[in-house]
Amino acid sequence: LEAAKREGGSLGEHAELLDEVTALVELPSVYVGRFDPAYLEVPQECLILTMRQNQKYFPLFDPAGKLLPKFLVVSNMKLADPLPIVGGNERVVRPRLEDARFFYNQDRKLRLEHRVPQLARVVYHNQLGTQLERVERIQLLAGSIARALKADALLAERAAWLSKADLLTGMVGEFPELQGFMGRYYALHDGEPREVADAIEAHYRPRFAGDRLPETPIACAVALADKLDALTGLFSIGQAPTGERDPFGLRRAALGVVRILVERGLELSLFELVKREDVASFIFERARGYFQERGYSAVEVDAVLSLRPARVDLVPRQLQAVRAFSAMPEAESLAAANKRIGNILKQAGTVPPGFDIALMVLPEEKALASTFKRLQPDVDGALRSLDYTAALKQLASLKAPVDAFFDKVMVMDKDPRVRANRIGFLGTLHGTMNRIADLSKLAK
After folding, report:
1. Considering Cα of 215, then 216, then 217, then 218, what sign does the dihedral take?
2. Alpha-carbon gap, residue 266 to 63, rounded angstroms
3. What is the chain's mean pLDDT, rounded?
4. Total Cβ atoms within 10 A of residue 404
5. pLDDT tops 70 at residue 43
6. For an engineered disulfide with 419, which of 46, 109, 159, 413 has Cβ 3.0 to 4.6 Å away?
7. Predicted local distance difference test score (pLDDT) of residue 1
8. CATH architecture of 114-318
9. Where are the domains of the chain?
């Protein structure tokens, strides 16, 4: 770090390389090497990867994050005159940078769109076809998602069509880690719209835990399509992760779907995106871990996700409402009552739709029904405006009449009409109480 500062630069994201180099040397000495600034015409990701991966050098960056024509070498020898070491390393890195420039210049001679048909010769998976067939599926799904987001479907489809073309370039063949990054540069060189170029790079995000997400609706559409196609396809041929084995990175893909939907606030139904039940369940399992890492308890998360909400982007609001509800003095009693109602409905089997207040006999059931009828418009209004906390606060006022109901009313009455009406009422009450979360999960 001190050497970088002396050269007026910084090391960027260097932690992983620093650990590796630290393990390789016993008496480290740091020297500064330089290369021809003309190489900076090559995308800096290529030069950085060449220096870090092949030579274990530390590239230097200016305050804006742009690569400088300098790098740090860590040697096991401390010399009064470091010129031989510095000169030797500069000679070693030069052909590496020249190779990167060669690949970059050669790749740009053929447009990305002309590479796409060649993907028919690249097998994606022997049971799922070629990369071209995969691109066609991604294109179809990306367009559909973009339309749902009211984004430009044609741009999303164009980005999806070109998204895998850079796999056939020399640069990505040499450095697979650059897939997407090079696609963006080549798309811009070809004159593609910037939204398309950005989506080509961003559709791989998040590449790792904590990575940035796609930023535009078009990029989000392509990223979701890419991940959902992988999940659906590989699950369909029995390649779901087992234990610690996840060779296709499907856990990362599912978590990426959750993060994009939640953190980008996308108003999409998960069940319209995913038709397979096992894939939806897998995504919900990733969502459990994701929300717990964000500070919600396992009980709070289970209360919301056990309902399998279609709109994953609304789950944070639901969790906040559940947390606020749990802090109310009425919460424990209502959660227990909710659990009791659920057990009664299971025992009843068939639950009649709705109820008739005229068939209610006892004052306690009439009082509860009247209070519920009075609250229902406010609860429905709060739900429509997505104010879940207000909705649960309204329901909390049912505590006293609910307690009185269970103290005085026998649900399984001998009169079949009265019994059916009470079961129908409890079914309606239960459905309203559990529209945000399964409150019975909060019972202690």
Report:
1. negative
2. 34
3. 93
4. 16
5. yes
6. 413
7. 63
8. Orthogonal Bundle (1.10)
9. 2-107, 114-318, 329-442
